[in-house]
Each structure stands twice: as C-alpha cells, then as structure tokens.
Specification:
With 186 residues, the protein is α/β, with parallel strands linked by helices. Helix content is 35%, strand content 23%.
Length: 186
C-alpha cells in the first residue's frame, strides 16, 4: 500500500511529529512518500477549469503541482501534515490542495444530502489530517477537524482520521499517530 504525506510545514517545526507519522505508516506496512511542499514550486490555481475541459485529469500549469496530483491519484492514504493556522492549513498546503482539483470529477452527485463531485477514481484514498499547534487551542482544533472532514467528503475518502497535536506534549505523539493510521486502515 502507498501513503503520500503532504508536508505543509513552513520550516523544521514539528518535524519530530512528521517522523513519528512516517514511522506509524511504515509500521502499518505502507510505502511512504513525503512531499515537502516548501521545497516545491507550485503556482496558485488560476480557476480556469482547464483540468476538466482542456486536459481532463491534469492541470494546465506545468509545475510541481502536477507531480503532487499524480502522487495523490496513486495513493491508498493521503496525510496532510500542517501547522494549524486560524483553524486552517498552512498556505503551502492550501496551494497544493487547490491544485489537486484535476483529481476530482467535474460532475456532481448528492452525498449525504449535499452536492459534491462524483468520484474520478474507483477507489479514492483515505485521508489523515494531522495538524500541529504550539499549545492546545480547542477552537482552532475544532475548525481544523471540520475542514479536513469536509475535504474528505469532497475527495470521497472512504475513511478519515483527524488529530491536532500540541507540540508541548511529545509524550502523546506515538499513540495518537498509531490510532490515526489504524482508523484509516481497518
């Protein structure tokens, strides 16, 4: 099985958490690819919908955003790793997520009473959302969880697990990360 971790960190903060996530995925027999988004040149989405009408399934912008989308299309599990910013994801991760729109179908369907995109692929990946904060912040954590769960619905992920870790509590990392991996692989 293949797991792709989108590392949305802006610097080395939280890299011990990322290493623990990689270990937890590896321990579950995943082949793990970590994409450090801060090292990639990814232009912002221009909203042209060319990925749906001109080059279906592929962004018209030829940069690392295409490579990220291809990696995610082959993944069994996608993991977002990001500092939580006002309850959301980092700007690096947001830019990459905007550019994976080619991985979803331009056609719509009702999902849980809401309108969402149809599946482009027969088996979409499960999703792990892992945010980090310097210290606990219940409001930011709740917003982040809602955002990731809504992303999972749009991606049509069959299983989703979300956690926000406080960097001042390293003793909790291992068990929480193993629980996230277990939740998306059962």
């Amino acid at each position: 099985m293949n797991a792709v971790v989108l590392d949305g960190s802006r610097d080395e903060t939280g890299q011990d958490v990322l290493a623990a996530l990689r270990d937890a995925l590896g321990g579950a027999r995943f082949e793990v690819e970590v994409i450090a988004l801060r090292t990639k040149t990814i232009a912002p989405c221009v909203g042209c919908f060319g990925c749906w009408v001109k080059t279906p399934g592929e962004c018209v912008i030829d940069d690392a955003g295409r490579d990220v989308a291809r990696s995610l299309a082959r993944a069994d599990v996608i993991a977002y790793f990001t500092p939580v910013t006002f309850g959301g994801v980092s700007s690096e991760l947001k830019k990459a997520l905007d550019r994976i729109i080619p991985n979803i179908s331009p056609f719509f369907a009702k999902v849980e009473g809401e309108t969402h995109h149809q599946k482009r692929y027969a088996q979409p990946p499960s999703l792990i959302g892992l945010g980090v904060l310097p210290a606990p912040d219940r409001e930011a954590e709740a917003l982040f969880k809602t955002l990731v769960e809504d992303n999972a619905t749009n991606l049509r992920s069959p299983r989703t697990a979300v956690a926000v870790l406080a960097l001042d509590r390293p003793d909790t990392f291992g068990a929480i990360l193993r629980g996230l991996v277990e939740a998306v692989t059962r």
